[in-house]
UniProtKB/TrEMBL annotation:
Function: Probably acts as a heme chaperone, transferring heme to an unknown acceptor. Binds one molecule of heme per monomer, possibly covalently. Binds 1 [4Fe-4S] cluster. The cluster is coordinated with 3 cysteines and an exchangeable S-adenosyl-L-methionine.
Cross-referenced Gene3D superfamilies: Aldolase class I (3.20.20.70)
Organism of derivation: Herbiconiux daphne
Protein's UniProt keywords contain Cell membrane: no
Protein name: Heme chaperone HemW
Similarity field: Belongs to the anaerobic coproporphyrinogen-III oxidase family. HemW subfamily.
CDD domains in alphabetical order: Radical_SAM
Matches recorded under Pfam families: Radical_SAM (PF04055)
Keywords (A to Z) from UniProt: 4Fe-4S, Chaperone, Cytoplasm, Heme, Iron, Iron-sulfur, Metal-binding, S-adenosyl-L-methionine
Subcellular location: Cytoplasm
Gene that encodes the chain: hemW
Amino acid sequence: MPSTLPLGDPAPADGLLPLAHASASADRAFGLYVHVPFCRVRCGYCDFNTYTATELRGARQADYSEQAIEEMRFAAGALAASGVADRPLSTVFFGGGTPTLLPAAQLADMLRAARDTWGLAPGAEVTTEANPDSVDAAYLRTLADAGFTRVSFGMQSAVPSVLATLERTHDPERIPDVVRWAKDAGLQVSLDLIYGTPGETLGDWQRSLDTVLANDPDHVSAYALIVEAGTKLARQIRSGAVAQPSDDLQADMYELADAALSSAGYGWYEVSNWSRDAATRSRHNLGYWVGSDWWGIGPGSHSYVGETRWWNVKHPSAYADRIAAGESPAAGRETIDASARELERVLLLSRVRGALRIETLPDAARHEIAGLIADGLIDGAAALRGTVDLTLRGRLLADAVVRRLT
């Protein structure tokens, strides 16, 4: 959850949504995101809405799980009063921050509350993010016993100097242990990487990829480092203390990752994500890309139902005050108009392999398909089957593809 909230309209204290946006809600999947905004230290590159112990100012980490559970109850009431269909949760995702800074029993309590409030669909995916230094075997077994199905480890790199630049605190030598413990507990495993850190070489990146493949995860995410304004890393770059990441080097790193992962049997299904098969994709994140409904729990969390998007107040103490008052924690919201909805639809679906149907595009966009194939940006065979599938070059130039389709 980014730390900067967008501008928007006032959000009502009762959390009610426009009745028109309940239309066809029974046909859309419903997911729950639970933001746990706590970290031991603040990494220099991070722009997420997170807080260390010294930044909480009136909020208590120990109280958070009960506050999140109370928002779940509020959410269920607001959705029902708005005429939104009562649906079991297809996915639940605990993100942060570092969810696993909380005791495993508290994560289990929040999952139990979600299950009691909405129910879980058969085969529901339940994920938590985790830092490699924040869990042990017993912790992961507790999560699995509580109904978690998947853990996403923030590995970022296998190279100590790269981790030091990112100000990550874990020991890369711990990765094989946490992966083994998670697998032994019966959890699917994703390893999440960042590439393009200042000072990182292609050799460093290859070492990280080799480490990932040696640990045989079910899923891999690889994201280019983005220097967010206001972060410590942005200030270091502005002062000349570290170098600006190179776009060309990041492109080379992406190509290296795709080649290594493809050779090892992982297929890309979204621009920054690879999985062993369809069963090991991140179904929660797919829900964001394909336009499912979700409610975001916690400070700074974003939610989306029908054509309404809203976001919660940022600071844990402000969030706690709203929850204690029985009011919506939303800071603002917006209704997505038809033109913005179409732009978002194309932007998001085009990133997902096989998701954007050519027949759903307007005439002008369909006329671009032949040129995009000729330019090597989308796959010709997939286009014959009716979908816009980015080529490797197209994934590197995804924004250009979207501009030609909208």
